[in-house]
Amino acid sequence: MDDNLTIQNKEQTEEAQINQAFQELLSNYLATKHRKRVEIITKAFNFANQAHRGIKRRSGEPYIMHPIAVAKIVCNEIGLGSTSICAALLHDVVEDTDYTIDDIENIFGPKIAQIVDGLTKISGGIFGDRASAQAENFKKLLLTMSNDIRVILIKIADRLHNMRTLGSMQPNKQFKIAGETLYIYAPLAHRLGLNKIKTELENLSFKYEHPEEYQEIESQLKETAAERDLVFTEFTAPIRTQLDQMGLKYHILARVKSVYSIWNKMQTKHVPFEEIYDILAVRIIFEPKSMEEELNNCFDIYVAISKIYKPHPDRLRDWISHPKANGYQALHVTLMSNRGQWIEVQIRSERMNDVAEQGFAAHWKYKEGGGSEDEGELEKWLHTIKEILEDPQPDAMDFLDTIKLNLFASEIFVFTPKGEIKTMPQNATALDFAFSLHTDIGSHCIGAKVNHKLVPLSHKLESGDQVEILTSKAQRVQPEWELYVTTARARSKITQILRKEAKQQQKEGEIRLIEFVKAEGITLSEEITNKLCKLHNAKTKEELFTLIGSKKIILGDAERNLLKEKQSMNWKRLLTFSFGSKEEKSNHEPSDSEKQPAGEALNTKQILKLTEEAISKNYIMAECCHPIPGDDVLGYIDDENRVIIHKRQCPVAARLKSSYGNRIIATEWDTHKELSFLVTLYIKGIDSMGLLNELTQVISRQLNVNIRKLTIESNDGIFEGHIQLYVHDVDDVRTICNNLKAINHIKQVVRVED
Fold it and tell me: N or C end of the chain, less CB within 10 A?
């Protein structure tokens, strides 16, 4: 009886919790400017609540709490209306229950059903172990985007809530989800202008992948907060006075760089926290006197504050006249404060701020009966993705990388000879520009004139360049062109053309080879093609045919001799076959590693302990990132069932996490300073007499560490170099760095990859 009462009380508590969460969602929705369609939202909630009844999340809370949380993000943080809120509430119903898309359409209409169908297609699907489920999902995601942008916005909200509740997952799942979030979802949020969400996704991913570094940077931010507040107050006081005199309604905010951004800069620039000088930025958000004056008001504020503080001549960014492709508009100026510190000031109107925070959702208005405003830049982006998807990539990883090139891109503005402006991704080359105009122009491009000067195809373009493309009908796409381009469109077109040509050459080569052996009175067989492959170092018969078809191999005497040798060998082979020794083993004994593949022997739910014996016998340290004990690492089971240990932040590991998450194993070190690992330190300072002697003394005598290689260069009184030495773990590296930094005139010591 008591047990029944306990269960009943628990159910009542959960029901109250669910209703409270839904009431909060309704209150949030009613506070927006959207049409008040409370009835359909309530209907969607009741339907989803009934469908998920009795199901729990891993954390133990009722499953319906997840769709409600996603709907709240969709409403509050992305700014979408009732259709999206309903779709968010229903997004897992078709995948996790017996209801179908037809049921959703009958009850809620075609629009909501279409979005739910899009979301279900992204999540669903059964893929083999070899196939990259994540890349396939991503392909689906992009295909459904072209029907309705709300699908991707809700999917990002779903991922954000999953990241906020990632603590209840197992470690290997955490790495997989955090990895693909950083690799795919954060760039997607960035491309769609969801800046706030993008920052949170990055921070949460970083928090799970590198918990110690996250805590360290967070505590350093807290320690320096009071000093930043003082700088902000001092810096903005005269600006406020000036804006008050101009009669503008405004508010000024301090923007503090995110933990992930700080860490990223520390890694790429090889500098400590103390040397990150752009942690603080200032944001001026104003209400324009009228929409017509919005642009002028921005420049008026810029002129006014430039009279107070001296602006940096090279750091004015005008995103107002030329908005970014994700709709972002603002004026960025860097000013010198009275403390001798450069501070970036971002000037935005209220409307621009909404777009910056909510991206396309901020101006994605829906008319009666569906349909949307024409969003030029978004349409262009979706069109590019459609083109890429039309050409199926053989490797899922290549596909992800191709898309990612465009997701991360910042824009530059270049002009055609007639003065027409074109938006291109940063680092785009002359060849990228040629393919952006037309595939024919790209494939026949022989060079370009940038600002009337002749440049090669690989020339990187800069904002403001005027570009003229030179073509020739005789020109054909070359394989090295793939190295010259950075845009997804150009790369996919070049690959497509090369693949088409290779197929033609392959066919021609096969015909030529058949005719050649026929002339020698022999029929083409597998054995002949294998021998010819060996002769010409071709990996496959297809490669051999292509080499013959492209006339890189001219069939002649060498091949004839091989064929004659083949005929004379037939008798020898027959003799060996008939009278060969019985002792010859037809099947080799499986080795220990074959008897027990590493992948099968491991339970991926457990955390793998990296002991000295395991490292020396079973596991491979990745060559790309050279992990050592103490680094945040993970294991990856490769195709040959070997476990390869990567650093978590290694770019190769990032790709593996997002594409082969089911092969990732959580790992931790369990070594006791018995094994030695090779690391490289970068060192920089002011050149002085006897410095090199002091440096080697500290390493060899004081710390008793073996130096493997030392390269030092000195230019204009500054010396820099690399030291390769053997250490046991990260603590050794920290001790060495600290001891070297204590030497007078040494200014920087950091660990780097080779």
Answer: N
Alpha carbons 612 and 590: distance in angstroms, whole number: 26
Instruction: Please give the residue range of the domain that contains residue 560.
Output: 498-576
On the question of pLDDT at 40 being above 50, the answer is yes
Whole-angstrom distance, CA of residue 94 vs CA of residue 99: 5
What pLDDT digit, counting tens, does each position of 341-378 carry?
Answer: 889 999 999 888 888 887 766 655 423 333 333 445 55
Pairing of strands 342-349, 331-336: antiparallel
- The answer to whether residues 353 and 418 belong to one domain is no
Token pair for residue 693? Answer: 């002697």
One of 11, 14, 77, 95 is an active-site residue; which one? 95
Q: Are residues 20 and 157 in the same domain?
A: yes
Domain boundary among 435, 470, 496: 496
- 3: tokens are 């047990």
Per residue in 386-411, pLDDT (tens digit) is: 666 666 555 666 666 666 666 556 67
Catalytic residue flag (residue 318): no
Which residue matches tokens 């939202």?
Answer: 41
Distances (CA, A) of 480 to 310, 431, 494: 47, 12, 10
Residue 326 scores a pLDDT above 90? no
Same domain, 536 and 619: no
Q: Is residue 729 flagged as an active site residue?
A: no
Which entry of 14, 15, 39, 96 is annotated as an active-site residue?
96
CATH number at 686 reads 3.30.70.260
Residue type, 66: H
400 CB-contact burial (10 Å; exposed 0-12 / middle 13-18 / buried 19+): buried
b/e burial code for range 220-249 (CB count within 10 A of at least 16 → b): bbeebeeeeeebbeebbeebeeebeeeebe
